[in-house]
């Protein structure tokens, strides 16, 4: 219940208890009122039945009075006096018969003073009946006036009778009795369309009734006349009953007025129905009024609540609750507005503090970032410097090596050049002189066929014939040898290019050729390390040259020779390794050149071991080598790359498939 009440809206909280109290009071009032009405209705009913009983009594009295008036009118007629005086029954009949039918009388009896019946007119229902009217007849014969009730013997019928004397100026002539039956017709006439029923009874024996549910002669327990209206049951219905007594001179007749309780119940039901409607109407009015009151009370409160909600939802602290009343709601609105202002101020302060904090933290972050960047930059610079240092160092060593080698080669070439030139230059003269000496010897042999025995012995010892035949051959081979030495010396000089250290026009094919010449000893077939392969000789490496048509180009020729030297030496190493691993029986280096897009492009390919994909990206890194310690420094390709890319603005690429071979592509732009 508490939970339910807590869940209600404020207006409902105000309205519901009020409604409950009002309804309860209202209902209680209605119940009390209803009961009061019911009681008074019942009372009214009782009152009405009593009134009705009185009216019935009056009506009965009126009937009596009518009879009295009628009898006086009849009795005082002269013609009737004369007829009685004469005992003229015929005349009496002539007079009375029309009167009986006009006045609707049930009986007319005329008697003389001796109680002899002169005329006794009755209606059909009484024609054979024995009317117990001796007393009445006697009274009439004495000329007395009497009002009475007379029984009909054996029949449940009662006659209301009136007597009067028939007098002449001479005295009393006789008496007349007129009567009317107290029957259902009379009762219906008295009831006259009323919803009430009438029953004549004597000692609870029904004589006449307007109620169909009860028959004539039936016995019923009717209330005593001195009792107020009482409830009785006839058949299966209840009635309010009130009995009254009509008294005659000798007899009396009781009449009971019945009023069906169902009518009372219907009236009561209708009353409750009206009260119910009244309750509903009242409840609706109370509910509407309650709702209006609650709305009036909560309207201002709602406005404040809505502002409170908007303030929290929109975080809008510029909103203000409207102050429309001076009651508690008004005070609440004022307090709430003050609270908003205070929160707004606090938030502004917090925001300012946050802003400051953020600024501080941003500044701090920026400083840290700057420091970190500076440190990182320094670190990178240091790394770079270290790298540069290493590179420079190794380059210096390499350069020094190459330069020493170049100088050595150049020195040797220079030293060899002069003696070889002596030999080569004098060989012509030696040949000429030898030819002349041989020609002179042939002349001596022609003109002196038989020389001195000493000469003959010397000739035989020297085997002059063979000598003359072989000497020119020796000279020719000496010429070839000297020529070869000259070529080698030239190649050494071209390779070292000591005299051409600066940027000059050079023939790349010439550089390749001189490099190949220097590497000649490595290209030749060789006996391999006895420990590994005992009986195998490494075959000669075949160099296939497919030179294209490329012009002489502007370059550092000596440095490019160094590039060729590095790449070719690597190719020879790879081929040797492949052969040792039994991978390739035929060792080939293919050198091709072409002019492609203003670039002199040289391909140097071998069918050696190839380069695994994982290390291909590291080939040009300084100090990267896969060769055993002492054999390789890992600087060859790094320096070559530098010479091609940086010094000549060209490109150096490597294409390799492991187990198939490697190809280096050098591209130098033609300037
Ligand atoms: N033609 C090739 N076939 C297979 N591997 C090669 C070839 N050329 C280069 N390499 C690989 O590239 C590596 C680096 O070569 P690089 O010439 O720079 O150094 P290196 O030959 O090891 O030593 P060095 O400084 O004596 O030349 C080699 O160790 C080798 O593994
Ligand atoms: Mg190398």
Explain what you see.
- The chain is α+β, with helices and mostly antiparallel strands and 671 residues long.
- The chain has 3 domains: 14-263, Beta-Lactamase (2-Layer Sandwich); 319-496; 503-669, Heat Shock Protein 90, CATH 3.30.565.10.
- Helix content is 57%, strand content 19%.
- The protein has helices spanning 2-6, 10-75, 78-86, 89-103, 134-141, 184-191, 261-314, 328-447, 453-462, 464-496, 508-518, 520-523, 557-580, 613-616, 636-647, and strands at residues 107-112, 117-122, 130-131, 146-153, 158-168, 171-181, 197-202, 205-209, 230-234, 237-247, 252-260, 504-506, 526-527, 537-538, 542-546, 553-555, 588-596, 599-606, 651-657, 661-669.
- It has a 6-stranded antiparallel sheet with strand order 2-1-6-5-4-3, with helices on both faces. Strands 8-7-11-10-9 form a 5-stranded antiparallel sheet. Strands 15-17-18-20-19 form a 5-stranded mixed sheet.
- The model has no long low-confidence stretch (mean pLDDT 87).
- Residues 566, 569-570, 632, 636 line the site of magnesium ion.
